[in-house]
Prior knowledge:
The chain is an all-alpha fold. The chain contains 36 helices and 2 strands.
Amino acid sequence: MNPGSNKHVVWAAGIVGFLVMSVVGWKWAEAFSGVPDAVGGAGFPAGAAHHSSRVVRIPGPPASVSDRMATVRAAGSAAERTLATVALAEGLAESEIRAWLDGGWYNLRDGSDLTVFTRILERRWLAGDSTAYLQWCSKRHPGKASEVLASWVDDEPQRVLGYFKNHPDHALELEALADIAKTHPALALEGFLEMTTAEFPKIQSLMYPGAYEKLFQQLARSAPEALEAALDSVPKSLRTTAEVALIGQRMLTSFPEELRKLWQRPDGEELFSYVLNHPDGIGDRMLGELANLPPHWRKEVATCAYTIIGDSDPEKWCGADLPGMGFTVEQTNQIRGAALSLLAATRPQLAFELMDSLDLADNRHNPVVQIALIRANPGQAESLVELLDSAADREYARSVLDSIARQQAEAPVVVDTPAEWLEKISTLDPDTADFHKCLSAPDQWDQQQLAGLSGQFSALSDDRKLRIAKALLGFHSFSLNYDTALMADVIRYAIARPDPSNNGWAGMTMDRTRQVCEFAVNWVKTDPSAASQWVQDLPDGDAKTWALGNVASVWAQYDPKQAGQWVNSLPGKARAGIGEFIKKGDRTLQIGPK
């Protein structure tokens, strides 16, 4: 079970500028049993038809589209154009809706008319064929699918469950079950158990840890007795997650008793560490029990200080006699540093006043100073600087204020269209703030607006392509708001034509294979045919070898038949490579070579 995040922790860590990025390894062997033998043909249907497709290129619009758009363009005023837009959206046949949405055929991008047009079409599609609309949304706009399902939860929860029985979508269903659990907990628990009774692959519990935690925590609040009674029916890989939710809920009313029960269990320390990552208001209660903790448990408290203190009063933790309770100097500094950082966000002056009264490690001021000065208003910030005793600390604080002022004075990067965005990132200096701001511009566009970027990228010169590849692969994760077809072309380009000077790739060279695998794994979950063909078409090398194995493993978790057909359609060398990949002695699937 992965530790959950806490809103205070995420905010505090982000504002200081410390980003910790990690890739989680997955154990696949249990979920992929039988596949090593199948590569030779036993488990996968021998000679099955190849069922992959190349990256889908949306065809151009029919001639009638131009005529219809001409009517909108001919409108004499903004109001008339909006009326023409509404008339067009209402007048389309229901069978045409998907093509217009997928193709982005409404190509007037200025003003709000595109939004009006899109919303009308989606409303009509939902009213006419909610199932087809939900299937479309689940791949392109999961947030909209969640909204529709959430609107059914209170009055029609069975309708939600019925949809998923015919159209499985594990992540979306877990989210819906958590909503159902608020008002119909018995139904939500039943739906979860039905979803996981058939040989539940361990991979599923590793893919969506936060979703399971949210569901179990809601069930622990709404129907704790029912969840407790059902623990033996919960898949083993998720049982600890469910039990931690129950323990955390009981701790809200009987913290000392529940804590002592954990002391008596062989797995108590492990459960304790999980509970600390999901405090849900136990911070103040924990403070009262610090002196009673077993010595080896204190390290867990120090490690999880941000999450625990975030739900309580940081000032109380600053004033606690931690050394007197048995905490080491290092543990004391961890806890007090976290408390001061959280206090700086809400009461910066008090945080500054407390800093010098606490015996912390060297360089202790910097995170607190940064947080406090960022949160303070200009007048307060200057008075805070004067509270610092050390000249070096005051100099550092003023450098922070100067940096804040420079950032506020910078003109924002203005990018109006996806085409302009692609052009912009191919010309900006990667070391400038404008460059990094520009990378987030796609957050303001939907997939329809981004759909043409792949073709635009393909038409660019090699120099421009190289700059874009460096930007998207070297400085940014694979955002869901980036167009999949664009990223597929960018990655293929980067692998086939590495930067001859190696200037700019150094930060990502050793992770190139990992990036390819991560992209392929994410894509295969939503469009296995396109993802599998893309991987198959990659240039030969480590990236392709590892990506083939990853795609086969992930795809087989939810559609072993189609995955098997694909594996058996591959050339013998690739098929054998997948078999060896899965038979690794440590039974752990690595994303990229060690």
